[in-house]
Amino acid sequence: MVETQRTAPLLATRDLVLFPGMLAPIFVEREKGVRALEQTSQSDGLLILAAQRSAVVDDPGPDDLFGVGTLAKVVQFSRLADGTVKALIEGRERVFIDGFDSVAPHFSARYHALPTRSPGKKPRPRALMDSVAREFANYVGQTPQLPEEAETALESVTDPHRMVDIAAAHLMIGPDRKQELLEGQDPESRLLLLLETLIQENEFIAVENEIAERVHDSFERQQRRVFLHERLKVLQEELGEEGEEDSERGTYMK
Fold this sequence. Notes:
The protein has 254 residues and is an alpha+beta fold. It has helices at residues 31-39, 123-141, 160-170, 175-183, 187-253; strands at 6-13, 23-28, 46-51, 68-79, 85-102, 107-113. It folds into two domains: 6-113, Archaeosine Trna-guanine Transglycosylase, Chain: A, domain 4 (Roll); 123-208, Methane Monooxygenase Hydroxylase, Chain G, domain 1. Strands 1-3-4-5-6 form a five-stranded mixed β-barrel. The radius of gyration is 29 Å and the shape is extended. The mean pLDDT is 88.
């Protein structure tokens, strides 16, 4: 079945990779982005978010953007006093960008939904999903910056693509790896990449925590040594004063 090609305004993002189901606040300063957001009033509030290949490019063209992005719904947006636009967006579906109808005054792109493969009844995807759920729970437990609801984010999730989207949206990793997770079409490949990412992140966090604990213990030992040294110094001074008093008392008695 051939996917129907549609058109929507497109917003280029420097380091944000949006996943379906993800609700995110964004601040838009560049004129093209502001115009794209304003244009959503004529596209049922729909907008494509496409990440830049390099965040340092200030005025990206079509070749500076990844070919897979996310169709999003603009929940609300408002213009701030300095001209910046603040918007709340919700990811709807992953899309392939077929081409551009215009690049000025804003991007307008043709797109179709990214084809995905069903895992069928194979046992391997189910096993991978169980492994992902365990590693994700471990990751959430070691990452206090995540919201409380992250602990139950994967409960009752039975679709592998949905699991990848939810977990990846919570990961505090670079945009390049997130883009890889966004683009995958095969459920097993996406799950494997997510599992590999989670294992790497958990190992890194464990090493960080171990180093922090060692530094903390070393600092405490050093503080104790300083305290004992100062305490000993005070005792020696007190004993020295008592010795002088005894000496004076002995001289007086003579």
